Input
Amino acid sequence: MLYGTPALEPADKTVLAEIEDMRQDLKYRLAETHRWDGQLRRQLQARAIQGSNSIEGYRAGVEDIQSIMEGEEPLHTSAAVAKEIAGYQQAMTYIRTLSRAPVFRYDVGLLNALNFMMIGHHRAKTPGVPRPAAIYVRDSTSGAVVYEGPDAELVPALMDELVAWLNEGDREAPSYVRAAMAHFNLVKIHPWRDGNGRMSRALQSLVLGRDQILTPEFCSIEEWLGEQRVTIEYYDVLGAVGRRRFSPHGDTLDWVRFCLRAHHMQAQRVAARLREAGEIWTHLEERVDAEGLNTRCVTALYEAFANRRLLRGRYQADEELSQGQAARDLRDLAARGWLRPYGETKGRYYEAGPRLAELKAEYAERVTPLRDPYRETW
Output
């Protein structure tokens, strides 16, 4: 037996309608190709990976995660954490592919394979294989047990039931609600020895991707969940709704409501970034053109604007340049005060110089606070 999908109340339906409106607006904007789209997608992917892994204590900067995504060595992240990031990124890459697959069905083998992709480097934890014994979730501070999963012998039947539900169950429910319940049921079954939380969040993105909500990087709430204050709320609501032991009864509306709020807040954030990306890119194009620089330099400046750090190799790949061309462009931008170099040879990177830092500070003052949709619907 699984946890049931709740009936929505008027306030939830209002929030859901607003999320849908934002989704349609995003789809309309993304239908037109822009030069900054690739970098924005990469940043969103990296932030989602960062958020989901930080919940489990694996912390890495966005710039290092982007390097790992491209098969490069990160500058500051430990080898152990880099393996966690790489495994998760591999699974999410496959999820993005599955979101567009013309023929698709959920099955237990797929979920086991995704778990193996995520934690395959932990061979002692039997990745991709259902756990053989009891499992307990403990408070990271006190060590006290906060959740006990169902008995191991129940896991195969529960996974079969979950897969059947993913394929056919509650098809009339809104996709955001089904995705939230997929997340909740998988994390409560806790079928593997490790990676259960990350798998559950990834499954939520896959459900939304399969329902053609948006591509996973634009519909994922993992970045939002990874914020420290939200992570605390996340664990609180998981505990309150799911209780201390697997008990698939009772009302799950508070969990769905938590997810709807997260989708609404993250959608506001993504929409703002999309608007800002166009404004910044256009502004940088005008400045670069006025100085007689090659317009390709905007790619480097935008990367340094959106992130803390720019690597020569990434700019070189984005613009399909030779190493010499990329190096000359970046030296020129540094000489003009747009960028500031750090490090030497292979470890060299660039951050915003005084001119770009001034522009970043100007845009930082324009940030509009996100609004909590439920505070306006009660």
Q: What stands out?
A: The longest strand covers residues 145-148.
